[in-house]
Amino acid sequence: KPGLALLIGGTILIQAITFDNEIIDTDYPREIAEIIEEDLEPGEQIYVSNYEHIIYYLLDMNTPTRFVHSVLLFSDYHKAFNVNAVQEVQRIIAAKPEFVVVERKNELVEKLIKGKYSLIRRFRNNEIKLYKRN
User: Which of 1, 15, 61, 122 has its CA 20 to 30 A from that of 43?
Assistant: First the structure.
């Protein structure tokens, strides 16, 4: 009987945690994609710098770079792959994506978009920022 009670109690606890994590938490990538989709014209691009790239999937768009995982551009891993990260990010921003998504602090991207983009929304305690081209 004690084993059965522990099993049932454990199952209920796991279900409660799963419900909280998957049902109650905000789906920020979907929310960001919906905001972008409202204002995005055909042919316009977006750039998701160091945030979740599922936004491209949600918008049925291709990424503007072949380096889809942000770790390849915004960490020291780019050196192992002989990637000039600064040049690649400059190329992307020069293509003038209509929206840019940044998570936490991304000095390179924020420096390149300064004065050309306006912050239109913040998400998740200001960690995620959505910029729109002026």
Answer: 122
Q: Enumerate the β-bridge partners of residue 47.
A: 100
| pTM value surpassing 0.90 | no
User: Can you spell out the DSSP letters for 26-55?
Assistant: --HHHHHHHHHHHHPPTT--EEE-SS-THH
* Widest distance between CA atoms in the chain: 67
Enter the tokens of residue 122: 């913040």
> Could you list the mean pLDDT of each consecutive 10-residue stretch along the chain, which spans 134 residues?
83 75 76 95 93 93 83 67 83 96 90 95 90 96
Q: What residues does 50 pair with on adjacent strands?
A: none
Q: Where are the beta strands (DSSP E) in the chain?
A: 46-48, 99-103, 117-123, 128-133
